[in-house]
Write a structure and sequence with these properties.
Blueprint: H1 2-16, H2 28-37, H3 41-58, H4 66-76, H5 80-93, H6 98-107
Helix pairs in contact: 2-3, 3-4, 4-5
Length: 112
């Protein structure tokens, strides 16, 4: 009985061990905060693009909302093509966001 209890405890504790994060958040959360604090979009775009490039080079996954946030920053500086590409990337990576992203895109006239 003690052996069974020991094995169960080991398996339970092993299952609770954290294996790291699923997404490479990097500075994304700080950039989201900066967005609401009014930091210029160009500075945010530069940091997010660098983070995106580094994540791709390392084979890491960007979190949900990352590409959509970058898309909105592109819209703020008048880059509708880049905005559209980022929204499409968000939908491809996170299909559950499709309806929401399509509603956002429907709000922008002349880019579809």
């Amino acid at each position: 009985m003690k052996k069974v209890l020991f094995v169960w405890c080991v398996l339970f504790l092993t299952g609770c061990a954290q294996k790291g994060t699923l997404y490479n958040w990097g500075s994304y959360e700080a950039q989201t905060y900066s967005y609401f604090k009014g930091e210029p979009p160009e500075a945010q775009i530069l940091q997010l693009e660098n983070h995106m490039r580094e994540s791709k080079d390392k084979g890491l996954i960007l979190p949900p909302g990352f590409h959509a946030h970058l898309a909105l920053l592109y819209e703020k500086i008048g880059k509708p093509i880049e905005m559209r590409q980022m929204f499409e990337t968000e939908k491809r990576l996170y299909p559950e966001s499709t309806t929401y992203i399509n509603n956002i895109l429907n709000g922008f006239k002349g880019i579809q």
